[in-house]
Amino acid sequence: MKPEFRPISVTIVDLMGAIFPGTIWLVLLVTFGELIQVLIVRSPYRADITVFSAISVLTDNRSLSFYVFLFLISFFIGFSTRQLVLTGAERLCAFFLYLWGGRKKAFDTYMFPYNEIHQNEEYYKEIVRYLNEKFYEGTDSKLPSSSGGQLFELPRKGTQPFSACKRVVRILSPLLWEETEAREAAVRMLGSMFLSAIFSLICALLALFVNSWRISIVWIVSTCLVVTFLAFAYRRARNSEVVYAYLNFLVAIKFRPDVEGEKG
Fold first, then answer.
1. What SS3 state is found at 148?
2. What does the domain layout of the chain look like in residue ranges?
């Protein structure tokens, strides 16, 4: 049976994953610019600089065309950084949770795709066994691997077998693959918000030299709470993405023969 591919529909998650984080980044960049202007250029300022003052700068007595321009800029920022977000958010979130946990667990436990968590589960072992059998099927020689043994070792560092599962799901079931991609889009939005919260914390620390100490302390404390919440939310959503990718893979390989039989 030839795999059937359908164009991926642009969902509300895809749009919000670009526009919402992009808007946050735009406001923070304006805030950062105002802080730098005061600290380095030594320009006079009249009031405390916060994200709310930046929103005022962006929205005060503006025309409709300017709001459209802001919308396009926000979308461009969010869309252009979507591929870079996961790498930065993953490492910073892993480091944050590693320190939060008192460094009791190995650092790899907090790194995507969390093989340290899944490697002892039966579904993971089944996936590794299936992938190796299929990759070696009909060949006289073993495919190359880092250890000279199986292509998908157990356990395996890096993104395997997660990446292989996603590619197989894309071939066998485009519908399940779209579901997997939608989950990644939601995770990417959380990752961008997590990075923006860290950038907001940097702005809050700079504001200590510009604003009154009360406003700066409130900004710092509230941002730290947001960073903590987003770190745990991102980790939970990212791990859920991995679990559902493995589940979709198992569903695709187990029920594909029935689908082929019905179409045959």
1. coil
2. 12-263
